[in-house]
Amino acid sequence: MLNSLPFKARWCLALTLAGAFIAGVVCLACGPDFVSLAWNAKDQLLAGCRAYPAVLFVALVVLPGLGFPASALLVLAGATWGSNWTGCAVALLATFLNMSWTYLVAAGPARSLVARVLGARWDRWRCLEHRDRIRLAILLRVTPGVPLFVQNYVLGLLAVPFIPYIIISVPLNGIFVVGFVLTSGAIFEGRLGMAISGVAVLVAAFVLVRMLRARFKSPKANTAGEVIEA
Q: In angstroms, how far is CA 74 from the centroid of its own chain?
């Protein structure tokens, strides 16, 4: 039965089971005080972020580029800065900076290193036409399951032009950024109406992503599609 599931589904199931196992071990180790300990840790984390908001901003800029889940940091950003447009703007700025430095690293020293490692095999991807690179940027941004830092590095390695890269990436990811910040901030503030608005933004983002993926994914195999599947 498990063999019939797609690879991504099996991977998500394995991670879920591993997370549940770790949570169970922690609960058994900490005993009945686990919930209170976790709640106190959450309060201390929020207090630290509110006392030093610049640290949270730097974390949003740097950590997603190192593989840390951006969604967890965005939830923390909403809880720290509140469910307001200022908090959304700051989170969007951090996302823009993260996308910029990861792209520059991939397009610069990392690209020459990959070219040396892959040799002639790299020529296939290096010679992509401009249209295929733009199409690839859109497909990567709307493909579920691809981590943000992987998207940034791949697009930098393939030398997608920086301006189109930013024009495509920031709006498509920005919708999710706004949704996460509004929703998490409203939940921590107890604002039901704003929480519903944040959820609506997230639902709209998912719908838009599905529409774009259906629009740009050709039924026939093409170069950009092969990169996505690879």
A: 10
DSSP string, 73-98: HHHHHHHHH-SSHHHHHHHHHHHHHH
Question: For residue 220, what are the contacts with CB-CB under 8 A and spacing of at least 6?
Answer: none
Q: What is the pLDDT of residue 223?
A: 45
Alpha helix segments (H runs only) across the chain: 7-30, 34-51, 53-62, 70-81, 85-105, 111-118, 123-126, 130-142, 148-157, 162-189, 192-216, 223-229
Higher pLDDT residue, 131 or 99?
Answer: 99
Using CA atoms, how far apart are residues 119 and 102, in angstroms rounded to an integer? 23
Paired tokens of 167: 């024009």
pLDDT for res 60: 93
Q: 153 is written with which tokens?
A: 């590095």
Specify whether the CB–CB gap between 228 and 139 falls below 8 A: yes
In whole angstroms, give the CA distance from residue 86 to residue 26.
Answer: 37
